[in-house]
Amino acid sequence: MKKTVAALVCFCSAYAAQGQVPPDSLKNRAYGSYVFLPVEFPIIDNRGFENAVTEADLPGGKHPTATLGLGLQFYANRYISTIAFAIGSRKKEEETYLTEMDYNSFSFNFGYDLTKNHRYALYPYLGYKGNGLNYLYREKIAKSTDMEEYLETDLRYKELHHSRAHLDLGFSFARQAFYLINARVGYLVPLEKSRWTINEDLHLSAAPGTRYKFYFSLNIGLGTIFSEDEMRRRHAR
Predict the structure, then answer these.
(1) CA quadruple 34, 36, 41, 42: dihedral positive or negative?
(2) Contact 210, 201 (CB under 8 A)
(3) Which domain of life is it from (predicted)?
(4) Which of 6, 25, 38, 178 is the most buried (most CB within 10 A)?
(5) Which tens digit of pLDDT belongs to each residue from 23-42?
(6) In this structure, is residue 77 part of a structural domain?
(7) Is-contact 64 18, C-beta < 8 A?
């Protein structure tokens, strides 16, 4: 809780500081938008679930190291808003079984650029981020099996889902031109309890906790950004 309060204080202080400086001149008023590909690296503490799966004599599932997605970024007079999603999967297939661990995230956040150069942005941001995991185990049968044997064989199948909403506190550095390169690091504060479900509606009691701790991401995109001063000089030619 202390970490959460400290992070909120730092974020609010950054916003308050911008209110004590003179208003931006015309040349510092800039607008832009980008479509980008987010490469996200989630850091998740899922050891409790992995231990529970191992104790049940099932193969463990590891979440993917990196995921891909799609996002939009808008820049308006040093205010930056972003919306994005990312998905990824890690599979393991053996002769007798298949396991798969999927990861997904959805986020939207707002930040304020601490620089006055719209070609570069250095900003804290605050927002919402929903994260989810899906574990699948499916027992396989020999390829040479006939129909009668298949119908009489009991194959094990397990599928579990996990989702959790978070307050997203982060910091970002971006290079902005006709392209966007944006490096981010975010810390996730849970807004609800950790829970595993079956079929997305049946909650499992006594389930181990899963903690989405923080993440790194690199957003690479295309778009445009311009200042009012640049547009005025362009139209004056």
Answers:
(1) positive
(2) no
(3) Bacteria
(4) 38
(5) 445 556 889 999 999 999 99
(6) yes
(7) no
Residues 6+ apart with CB under 8 A from 147: none
- The two tokens of residue 166 are 């978070």
d(CA 130, CA 21): 35
Residue 85 structural domain: 30-236
- In angstroms, the Cα distances linking 200 to 132, 133, 134 are 11, 11, 10
Block residue for tokens 């938008």? 33
* Tokens found for residue 95: 């002769």
Q: How far, in Å, CA of 4 to CA of 1, rounded?
A: 5
Task: For 110-169, write each residue's pLDDT tens digit.
Answer: 999 999 888 999 999 999 999 999 999 998 887 777 777 777 778 888 899 999 999 999
Say how many domains are in the chain: 1
pTM: 0.80
The two three-digit tokens of residue 50, written as one number: 């992995």
Angle at 152 between CA 151 and CA 156, to 5 degrees: 90
Amino acid at 36: F
